[in-house]
Amino acid sequence: MTDLGKTKLSRRDFLRLLGLGAGATAVGMAAKPMVQPMVKNPSFEARPFADEAGRSQRPWWVKTVDQPTIEIDWAKMNRFSEAYNPETKTGSVRGKGFGGYVGADKEKELNAQSAAFLKKSVQDNKPGYSLKDQALNSSHGLSVAQSFLGPQKAKTPEDWGVSKWTGTPEEAARILRAALRHNGAATVGFVELDENTKKLIYSVDPDGKKLEFTDNPEASEDDTTRYIPNTAKYVIVYTVQMSEETLKRAPTVLGSQTTALAYKRGRQIQGSIQEFLRGLGYMGLGESTTNALGIAPAFGVMAGLGELSRLNRLITPEFGPMVRVFKMLTDLPVAIDKPIDAGIMKFCANCKKCAEACAPGALSFDTEPTWETRGGWNNPGHKAYFEDSTKCMTYWKQVGTNCGVCFAVCPFAKKDKAWIHEWVKATASTAPVMDGFMRTMDDAFGYGVEKDQEAWWHMDLPEYGADSSGML
Length: 472
Known about the structure:
472 residues; alpha+beta; four-stranded antiparallel beta sheet; 16 helices; globular
């Protein structure tokens, strides 16, 4: 008997196994009513947004819900300090946090090991780590301005001698979505800060500056603190696509540089939208540094851009985990969005493919999410598949990159370039009993990490390596 978990199958073989045969296309179409085709279209023609707030039409199996698909106990949640606190041993593993958790000597040893590994890899012309791979990675080192208050160079309505822009919350959301999409954002959602969601804003930014809410109508910052006016209560959450083909080369330098590219694009978008908002007469408060201001995956969940997952990161219906998530604050009243249920978290309960592929064993194998955190880098107050970030970061040092294998192997990481992918996602959402079979099929098709690093340099990929034509 054929072992589907170890044998690669073509789509045709898969359809034969299902007994679909020549009628497969008809079955596939029946399984996806009212869905915009997510395919590359050379004769692409723009069309209007699906509603007055600028929301695009999403697959029929993506349901809007009042509460996210993870349980949250807001009473047990506090604002998280992204900066490492040596007294409480809490905060992010990034930056100074890693040395705080594993010890300064261990961090120094791993940093030296990482530098030596990368140098030898270049000298040995190791695929994925070669000179041209490193050169591509270096191309993203160009500094892109990023600040809490923004460039503040755009002319304001006062400069023009007119009143600030006004419109309904739906109109505001629509023009913001249009501006964000035009500047390169993939998907956009909005969250209103209240007593609960305000807890998703960091208490301390990565650089050690406190974030404080104030009744002062003007945003400002000094040497120790960034002041957020209470009127800036609307969170703009947006994603930037990453190249699937490139990240499939993880955990090499070639694979990891796609993350750096996404962050660079995110910074460019932030500055542009801060100026756009200033031009309308409103404030746009952004990330002062990478991963600043607030918890990106959490805001992505609350804005309905995706669901939390076994990765403990956002997985979107459109692009799976192949996105980076960014956020800004504004005082422009916008129509807010709700969480979604696309069956993603339910699928994660049975899949576990990312955990199996995680070389350092940093991801959870638990069938159900838990309230119990793994360390001071996790924020309590919600049920999740919490990860061991020290194991993850240690592996990063060992391979000299930011890894990304868990993203690459995720069954949701395939764009809908064939109806079968959309059918699988729809089935995961509407028929959880099939989740195990769908995971097996993902293995059988051979999806996951790509071993041929050199082939990437011979591929004719779209801009930034990610096709966004199906989103409009």
